[in-house]
């Protein structure tokens, strides 16, 4: 089984591989999940789940603290309802495909956010037109596929 996450990178796509300790700014659309499916199958599932959603804007909302002890500083992503709807579409498709989520932050527990980076807290406004399937392998994150968020 392989560990993945679905993200929307903010700004230019980073290198295809980076350290999990140095993520570029992104909104996590689907938290960590495991799957035995091939990347090509997951990519197709992801693309089908976001078809007809259209581009999505994201702006910085309130600051919050995530993690068991509130040790992870984040900025909430707005509009929260739109991000939640996108999350639900992607998670539903992955669950139907037999993927298993490894954290409880799906469904009602999901909160769209941008984790602070070495560059500080994100404070921009972006238009997201692509989601990315990222493989998590030890300390490495490897971008595996892109799915355009488009209208039919």
What does this structure look like?
- The protein is α+β, with helices and mostly antiparallel strands.
- 19% of the residues lie in helices and 43% in strands.
- It contains two helices and ten strands.
- The strands form two sheets. Strands 2-10-9-1-3-6 form a six-stranded antiparallel sheet.
- Strand 4 and strand 5 form a beta hairpin.
- Helix 1 packs across helix 2.
- The longest helix has 17 residues.
- The mean pLDDT is 89.
Q: How would you concisely characterize the structure shown here?
A:
This protein has helices at 39-50, 80-96, and strands spanning 2-9, 17-19, 26-35, 56-66, 72-78, 100-101, 113-115, 125-128, 130-137, 140-148. With 152 residues, the protein is an alpha+beta fold.
What's the topology here?
Layout: E1 2-9, E2 17-19, E3 26-35, H1 39-50, E4 56-66, E5 72-78, H2 80-96, E6 100-101, E7 113-115, E8 125-128, E9 130-137, E10 140-148
Antiparallel strand pairs: 1-3, 1-9, 2-10, 3-6, 4-5, 4-8, 5-7, 9-10
β-sheet strand percentage: 35-45%
Spatial ordering of strands, largest sheet: 2-10-9-1-3-6
Which residues sit in consecutive blocks of at least 5 with pLDDT less than 50? none
Distance between termini? Answer: 33 Å
Largest sheet: 6 strands, antiparallel
Would you list the SSEs in sequence order as H and E? EEEHEEHEEEEE
Q: Which descriptors apply to this entry?
A:
four-stranded antiparallel β-sheet, 10 strands, six-stranded antiparallel β-sheet, about 45% strand, about 150 residues, alpha+beta
